[in-house]
């Protein structure tokens, strides 16, 4: 299995593709941060008892007045910026990935049903999708969040409401073309019912293009969530994501205390950059038309 | 003896006008453009006896596959009756159809598209049988035996379709069709996508299987030399109509419908010197969206006269099991180009 | 009969290989043939035999990962295998035209056909606008398109498949090329349309005194069209000769097998003669003769040494250690 992977054309192309390698390295670093985060920091940034106001607004360690305990400095409550970023990254990634999974599941289901059964239901679903796609995702999410109020669960709902459409459309298109193919007709002749045909024959054959969509969408979701939080309608202050960290530091940005918000910003940038680099590589590899 | 398959006045129409939004238009003084209906099959009748090979021929778009797929109930017919082994099937639900499917199976044209790329060969072949019985042990034994019978070996069972050549895939499709011991096989251009040397292998296999299992075939093809080799009887379709049916030797020696004659003289042969009298056609097949009045073939027929536009010729017996739908039968003196 | 001795095209030991991830595909591996002025040559064989790659090589249309490794393509004395892309650009269309199986390969869906025809003439002739237009109309009428003048403004999608192939033929013939490479020009068409198109191609070729390479998997089409046949198997020529002789009296076991596996209406047998097995993976060819795993005549020598293309009798050659005896099958 593993040796087959290393002998594959996929792996060979990856090895020759600088941006794919860079993207992968970034993603691995972030994966380590997400999985092992709590063990990487010496301070729990949200345990107020462990904070000391005496440490507030310390600059990064290499600047005059810096403290080696706080490599990237501290915020107004004496919280280690690096620790806050590591915790924030976990929340951002958690939200991005979970919202992607919810969107994927719901959108795929809707797309399969619409594409396989067609007819009025299909027309209705696709018109809803068209209307939704004529508004920027950010605007819809913002609107929903101002109706719901803050909370991780609410961010998830808002992102899923925005994100299912792209899967529904992709899957519907694939399903339309797959269900006209002869192997699906053969399944009907074999006597399979619709539900089984969809599950056993169509679903496995429509998923490949979703991998790319899903990868890139995690990046998009992380950015939308960050924007929502920055605007104060995202996650609550007790569970700050990277976006909220930027907002928290933004008030003091122009008083020379730049590190509180610039470092979370750089982390988001690196994360989304890595995701997109890797997504582009996947797109080239999995797109049969380019082969 | 009941016929294995009887089709009467079979009709299949496809509405291709789409939803309301697709029909919205600002031309012709109306808001909704009229419905567009493909009249793919227009009242076709024929039967296939037990153990018989009936070949259905005609050019692409004439409705051969639609006939096949309607009989196999991939489509529901919009009109007419279909009897399989004496039982009417056109109104049956999916559940009621299941036992019928053990009598009738189908082989498809495209060796690449007709096998699910994500399924292993053993699962592909066992699928129809499992649907009938649910007995996995039996299905496994049967699958092994079938793969051997169609010329594949046991180690092939665990592979995926992309690891096989076109001819081998067609063998897999044949094994799948045989798994439920059907007595009627609908074969939609089973060798059209194959190279000639492979085509001969598959045709031989299909004929051996017929002798072995007493199969009846509805064999669809556009290749007349293949049809001549395999068929007991031949039915010729044009634009969704049946224009002529006859026993094989009669049809090839004495084709009566002008379209059949044109088809025979257009087919390239290895020995062009031996070719029959040429009827050359001009023009192309009209659209199935708007059929010509009268005879379906009149737009290309070198003999057509005014009666052909006014009156649709019915398929009529001309003796010796031959049936022809053409007004020339009444007025043979017009049979000179 | 035209003078068939003057050679127009001579392909000599052509090797075109594709360097893919999974290994080198020797799609064309040492192919030689020559084509006289006014001759129609059928290039036949099963799919994957290298027929299309020969055609593309002649036109200089081999793209990466493919490459012409060696050999000569002498067109009127000039070696096209070494010609620059600029030079090939001038030759394509003007001197050598190509007709593909799918007419949309050569038509631009965004332009009316009149404009595409006009471009061709502007590039390769020095007719003025009025002359070009007249020529286009005449050409369309010639290939059997009625109301040609109105049809100049139609887009390719407004034609049926058979009509589109006619338009492609009209475009191909416009600049009066000396060589036409037709790659399965009628494979996608129905027999009655095929018959029309084949007749049209033959007439056009004969009237303009051009030569043609007709690439097809269909021996019956070749039997009706070609003067000579070249049979390819796994990238190599296995047999060459005048059409009737090759079909009535094939020398190479592969050619014989191909012909025998076509059902013959005048001699109906219960079982067809079949060639066992399938074309081998071209990346893993057997040692010795490529056909040996499927050949009924194979002997020990066939596994050891690859047969060379040898002259069997004047004008005929086959690459086989134990060719089928002459005198008809
Ligand atoms: N599912 C479908 N929807 C709409 N039109 C169809 C459908 N299937 C077939 N047709 C049309 O019906 C006609 C007959 O097609 P088909 O049965 O595939 O012909 P053949 O198999 O003889 O080539 C064609 O005009 C085709 O476009
Ligand atoms: N662009 C390509 N890349 C890799 N292999 C190719 C390419 N084009 C053709 N081939 C290979 O070359 C061989 C000959 O192909 P082709 O000339 O198309 O055969 P034919 O026209 O006789 O069917 C095949 O094995 C095919 O897979
Ligand atoms: S009925 Fe008339 S148009 Fe039709 S086939 Fe006969 S002669 Fe031709
Ligand atoms: S060389 Fe041998 S194996 Fe090859 S074709 Fe001739 S007899 Fe057959
Ligand atoms: Mg069909
Ligand atoms: Mg080819």
What attributes does this structure have?
heterotrimer, A: 291 residues, mainly alpha, MetI-like fold, 71% helix, 0% strand, elongated, B: 337 residues, alpha/beta, Rossmann fold, 8-stranded mixed beta sheet, 4-stranded antiparallel beta sheet, 11 helices, 20% strand, globular, binds adenosine-5'-diphosphate, binds iron/sulfur cluster, binds magnesium ion
Q: What would your notes on this structure say?
A:
The complex is a heterotrimer of chains A (291), B (337) and C (329). Chain A is mainly alpha-helical and 291 residues long. Chain A has a single domain (79-290), classed as Orthogonal Bundle (MetI-like fold). In chain A, 71% of the residues lie in helices and 0% in strands. Chain A has helices at residues 2-6, 9-15, 18-40, 81-117, 119-133, 137-148, 152-179, 182-189, 194-206, 208-230, 242-250, 259-286. The longest helix of chain A has 37 residues, at 81-117. Chain B is built from eleven helices and twelve strands. In chain B, α5 (136-149) packs across α6 (166-178) and α6 runs parallel beside α7 (196-213). By secondary structure, chain B is of the alpha/beta class. Chain B has a single domain (5-103, 182-334), classed as 3-Layer(aba) Sandwich (Rossmann fold), CATH 3.40.50. In chain B, the strands form two sheets. In chain B, strands 6-7-8-3-9-10-12-11 form an eight-stranded mixed beta sheet, sandwiched between helices. In chain B, strands 2-1-4-5 form a four-stranded antiparallel beta sheet, covered by helices on one side. Helix content of chain C is 32%, strand content 24%. Chain C is globular and about 70 Å long. Chain C contains eleven helices and twelve strands. The mean pLDDT of chain C is 92. Chain C has an eight-stranded mixed beta sheet with strand order 6-7-8-3-9-10-12-11, sandwiched between helices. A four-stranded antiparallel beta sheet of chain C has the order 2-1-4-5, covered by helices on one side. With 329 residues, chain C is of the alpha/beta class. Classes of the chains: A mainly alpha (291), B alpha/beta (337), C alpha/beta (329). Chain B binds chain C through residues 59-60, 165, 167-168, 195-201, 203-204, 207, 222, 224-226, 228-229, 252, 262-263, 265-272, 274, 280-282, 284-285, and chain C through 46-47, 144, 160, 162-163, 190-196, 198, 217-221, 223-224, 247, 257-259, 261-266, 268, 270-276, 278-279.
């Amino acid at each position: 299995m593993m040796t087959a992977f290393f002998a594959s054309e996929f792996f060979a192309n990856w090895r020759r593709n600088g941006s794919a390698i860079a993207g992968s390295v970034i993603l691995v670093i972030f994966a380590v941060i997400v999985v092992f985060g709590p063990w990487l920091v010496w301070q729990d940034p949200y345990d107020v008892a462990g904070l000391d106001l005496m440490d507030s607004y310390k600059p990064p360690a290499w600047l005059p007045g810096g403290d080696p305990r706080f490599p990237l400095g501290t915020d107004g409550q004496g919280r280690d910026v690096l620790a806050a970023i590591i915790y924030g990254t976990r929340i951002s990634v958690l939200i991005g990935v979970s919202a992607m999974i919810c969107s994927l599941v719901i959108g795929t289901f809707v797309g399969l049903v619409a594409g396989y059964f067609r007819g009025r239901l299909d027309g209705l679903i696709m018109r809803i999708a068209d209307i939704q796609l004529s508004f920027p995702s950010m605007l819809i999410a913002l609107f929903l969040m101002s109706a719901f109020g803050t909370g991780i669960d609410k961010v998830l709902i808002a992102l899923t409401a925005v994100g299912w459409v792209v899967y529904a459309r992709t899957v519907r298109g694939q399903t339309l073309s797959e269900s006209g193919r002869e192997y699906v007709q053969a399944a009907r002749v074999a006597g399979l019912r619709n539900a089984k045909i969809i599950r056993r024959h169509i679903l496995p054959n429509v998923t490949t293009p979703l991998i790319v969509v899903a990868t890139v969408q995690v990046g998009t979701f992380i950015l939308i969530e960050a924007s929502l939080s920055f605007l104060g309608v995202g996650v609550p202050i007790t569970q700050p994501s990277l976006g909220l960290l930027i907002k928290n530091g933004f008030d003091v940005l122009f008083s020379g205390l730049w590190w509180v918000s610039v470092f979370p910003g750089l982390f988001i940038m690196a994360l989304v950059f890595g995701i997109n680099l890797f997504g582009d590589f996947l797109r080239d590899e999995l797109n049969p038309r380019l082969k | 003896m009941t016929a294995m398959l009887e089709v009467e006045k079979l009709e299949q129409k496809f509405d291709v006008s789409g939803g309301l939004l697709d029909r919205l238009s600002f031309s012709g003084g109306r808001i909704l453009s009229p419905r567009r209906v493909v009249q793919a099959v227009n009242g076709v009748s024929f039967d296939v006896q037990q153990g018989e090979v009936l070949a259905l021929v005609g050019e692409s778009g004439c409705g051969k596959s639609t006939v096949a797929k309607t009989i196999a109930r991939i489509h529901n017919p919009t009109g007419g009756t279909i009897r399989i082994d004496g039982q009417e099937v056109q109104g049956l639900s999916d559940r009621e159809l299941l036992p019928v499917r053990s009598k009738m199976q189908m082989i498809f044209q495209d060796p690449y598209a007709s096998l699910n790329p994500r399924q292993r060969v053993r699962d592909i072949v066992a699928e129809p049988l499992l649907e009938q019985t649910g007995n996995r042990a039996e299905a496994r034994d049967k699958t092994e035996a079938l793969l051997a019978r169609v010329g594949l070996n046991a180690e092939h069972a665990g592979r995926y379709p992309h690891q096989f050549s076109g001819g081998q895939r067609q063998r897999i499709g044949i094994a799948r069709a045989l798994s439920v011991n059907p007595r009627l096989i609908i074969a939609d251009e089973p060798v059209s996508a194959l190279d000639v040397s492979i085509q001969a292998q598959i045709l031989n296999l299909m004929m051996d299987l017929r002798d072995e299992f007493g199969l009846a075939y509805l064999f669809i093809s556009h290749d007349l030399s293949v049809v001549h080799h395999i068929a007991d009887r031949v039915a010729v379709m044009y634009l969704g109509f049946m224009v002529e049916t006859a026993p094989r030797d009669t049809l090839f020696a004495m084709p009566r419908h002008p379209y059949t004659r044109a088809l025979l003289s257009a087919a390239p042969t290895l020995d062009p010197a031996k070719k029959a009298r040429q009827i050359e056609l001009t023009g192309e097949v009209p659209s199935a969206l708007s059929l010509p009045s009268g005879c379906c073939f009149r737009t290309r027929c070198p003999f057509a006269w005014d009666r052909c536009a006014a009156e649709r010729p019915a398929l009529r017996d001309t003796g010796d099991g031959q049936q022809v739908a053409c007004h020339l039968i009444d007025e043979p003196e017009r049979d000179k180009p | 009969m035209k003078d068939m001795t003057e050679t127009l095209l001579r392909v000599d030991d052509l090797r075109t290989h594709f360097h893919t991830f999974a290994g080198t595909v020797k799609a064309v591996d040492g192919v030689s043939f020559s084509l006289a002025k006014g001759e129609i040559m059928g290039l036949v064989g099963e799919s994957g035999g290298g027929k299309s790659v020969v055609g593309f090589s002649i036109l200089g249309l081999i793209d990466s990962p493919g490459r012409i490794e060696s050999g000569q393509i002498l067109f009127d004395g000039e070696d096209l295998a070494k010609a620059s892309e600029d030079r090939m650009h001038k030759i394509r269309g003007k001197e050598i035209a190509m007709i593909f199986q799918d007419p949309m390969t050569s038509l631009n869906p965004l332009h009316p056909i009149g404009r595409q025809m006009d471009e061709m003439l502007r590039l390769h002739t020095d007719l003025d606008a009025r002359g070009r237009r007249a020529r286009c109309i005449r050409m369309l009428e010639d290939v059997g398109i009625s109301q040609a003048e109105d049809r100049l403004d139609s887009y390719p999608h407004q034609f049926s498949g058979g009509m589109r192939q006619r338009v492609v033929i009209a475009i191909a013939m416009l600049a009066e090329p000396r060589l036409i490479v037709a790659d399965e020009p009628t494979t996608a068409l129905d027999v009655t349309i095929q018959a029309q198109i084949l007749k049209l191609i033959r007439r056009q070729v004969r009237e303009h005194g051009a030569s043609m390479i007709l690439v097809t998997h269909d021996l019956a089409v070749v039997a009706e069209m070609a003067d000579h046949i070249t049979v390819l198997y796994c990238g190599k020529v296995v047999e060459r000769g005048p059409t009737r002789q090759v079909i009535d009296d094939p020398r190479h076991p592969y050619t014989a097998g191909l012909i025998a596996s076509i059902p013959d209406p005048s001699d109906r047998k219960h079982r067809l003669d079949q060639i066992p097995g399938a074309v081998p993976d071209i990346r893993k060819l057997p040692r010795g003769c490529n056909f040996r795993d499927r050949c009924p005549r194979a002997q020990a020598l066939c596994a050891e040494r690859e047969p060379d293309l040898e002259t069997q009798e004047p004008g005929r050659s086959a690459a086989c250690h134990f060719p089928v005896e002459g005198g008809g099958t």
